[in-house]
């Protein structure tokens, strides 16, 4: 990874860190929502796909900023692909489905902008421009599906016990299991389409880079 790529990765990690810190501050000092008291309110922040996808993106970006030559290991490759794909899904689903019902003000609006808009943009652009290339293939795509499935299972099982669902389209109490699973299937199709596109594009960009050298 080039020096510019390392700087971009560091900026990406910083955006994620700032967004999550601001969100935790806003949540800790608020009282609205399903959980009204701390520490439950703060812990619940990490149940959101938005936060987890930002953590995946920011964590792998930080590794690349500190270790630009990092390219080995199926675990890192899977986490890197998950970070890019999940943050892309976060941005797309939020702006197409959820943003119209959002009404954030003050620091909450800052956190919302950083986590739902800035990090998806810098995350995807950073992957497109700086890679690193060659970290994804169809085997890694298969492994990358595990995390979203685990998140969905956790969300539905936890929701059954505590009654909380992080997003309206996952709310079983509101829509029932059939509709929620259909909603999640649509998101899964988006995820797989992005995974297939990323893997194909990565191969072409890697081939182009090799030829230019």
Q: DSSP helix count? A: 8
Largest sheet: none
The average pLDDT is 91
Query: In terms of structural class, how would the helical and strand content be classed?
Result: mainly alpha
Number of strands: 0
Distance between the termini: 14 Å
Low-confidence segments = none
Instruction: Name the shape in a single word.
Output: globular
Portion of residues in beta strands equals under 5%
Oligomerization category of the chains in this entry: single chain
Portion of residues within helices: over 70%
Radius of gyration, whole Å: 18 Å
The run of helices and strands is HHHHHHHH
Structure characterization notes:
This protein has 213 residues and is mainly alpha-helical. The protein contains eight helices and no strands.
Tell me the layout of helices and strands:
Blueprint: H1 3-28, H2 40-45, H3 49-66, H4 74-98, H5 107-130, H6 138-144, H7 146-162, H8 172-212
Helix pairs in contact: 1-3, 1-5, 3-4, 3-5, 4-5, 4-6, 4-8
Features:
213 residues; mainly alpha
């Amino acid at each position: 990874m080039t020096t510019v790529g390392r700087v971009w990765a560091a900026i990406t990690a910083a955006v994620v860190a700032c967004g999550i810190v601001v969100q935790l501050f806003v949540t800790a000092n608020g009282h609205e929502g399903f959980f009204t008291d701390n520490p439950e309110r703060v812990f619940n922040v990490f149940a959101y796909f938005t936060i987890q996808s930002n953590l995946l993106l920011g964590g792998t970006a930080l590794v690349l900023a500190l270790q630009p030559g990092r390219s080995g290991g199926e675990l890192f490759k899977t986490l890197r692909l998950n970070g890019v794909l999940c943050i892309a899904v976060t941005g797309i689903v939020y702006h197409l489905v959820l943003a119209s019902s959002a009404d954030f003000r003050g620091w909450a609006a800052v956190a919302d902008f950083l986590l739902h808009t800035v990090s998806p943009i810098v995350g995807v652009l950073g992957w497109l421009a700086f890679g690193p290339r060659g970290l994804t293939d169809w085997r890694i795509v298969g492994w990358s599906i595990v995390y979203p499935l685990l998140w969905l299972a956790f969300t539905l099982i936890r929701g059954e016990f505590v009654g909380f669902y992080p997003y309206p389209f996952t709310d079983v109490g509101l829509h029932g299991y059939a509709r929620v699973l259909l909603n999640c299937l649509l998101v899964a199709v988006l995820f797989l389409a992005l995974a297939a596109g990323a893997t194909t594009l990565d191969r072409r960009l890697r081939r182009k880079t090799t030829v230019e050298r």
